[in-house]
Amino acid sequence: MNHKIFIIILIITACIVSCNNSGKDKGLTEQQKLAKEIAKTEEDLFDDVQPNRDKAIAMIDIYLDYVAKYPKDTICPEYLFKASEIAMNFDQPHNSIRYLTQIETGYPDYSKYATSIFMKAYVYDYFIGDTEKAREYYTRYIEHYPDHTFVKDAEGALMFLGMNDDQLIELFQDINKYN
To answer: How far apart are CA 142 and CA 69, in angstroms?
Structure first.
């Protein structure tokens, strides 16, 4: 008898919780619902000490879904930037470049536009190994944004661009001789 009451209470509680949760999203537009899903998924992904690859890829998919549906929304370049960072860190450098290119071609007024150009050079340099493209984007970054945050980093990267480990060791040994 006690088990039946317990089960009935569980069912009633589940119904109440379900009704309350569905009511929270009532009246929200599809765009607002998707933005809410993004916030929740970000929270889940970044709460992990070691982010889960499947969650990360799902996060990218949600960002891209939003950008595809609402390309004129001012949050889109930020979502593309975040997708690029995740892709870069989860061994998808070509996807990272693709998302940064979307920022480059579609969102020139984005507050992190200059950083996006630097990141594109960085991904080409360190993750893809395309020194020609890396040089192109580092140079472009330095020329167009000479007072920006990562100019010294870009100049340093250009100095060492294309050098293998042995060449770098030799260079640093030569520098140390004179210090």
So the answer is: 34
The answer on pLDDT for 151 being more than 60 is: yes
DSSP conformational letter for 163: -
Distance CA 102, CA 108 (A): 10
Q: What is the CA radius of gyration of the chain?
A: 24
Q: What are the distances in angstroms from CA 144 to CA 104, 109, 111?
A: 13, 14, 15
Q: What's the CA gap between 148 and 38, in Å, rounded? A: 30
Q: Which residues contact 179 (CB under 8 A, 6 or more apart)?
A: none
- pTM of the full predicted structure? 0.78
Which CATH code fits 28-177? 1.25.40.10
Amino acid code (one letter) for 25: D
DSSP string, 51-109: --HHHHHHHHHHHHHHHHH-TTSTTHHHHHHHHHHHHHHTT-HHHHHHHHHHHHHH-TT
Task: Please state the domain extents for the chain.
Answer: 28-177
Question: How do residues 70-98 score in pLDDT, each as one tens digit?
Answer: 999 999 999 999 999 999 999 999 999 99
d(CA 108, CA 63): 19
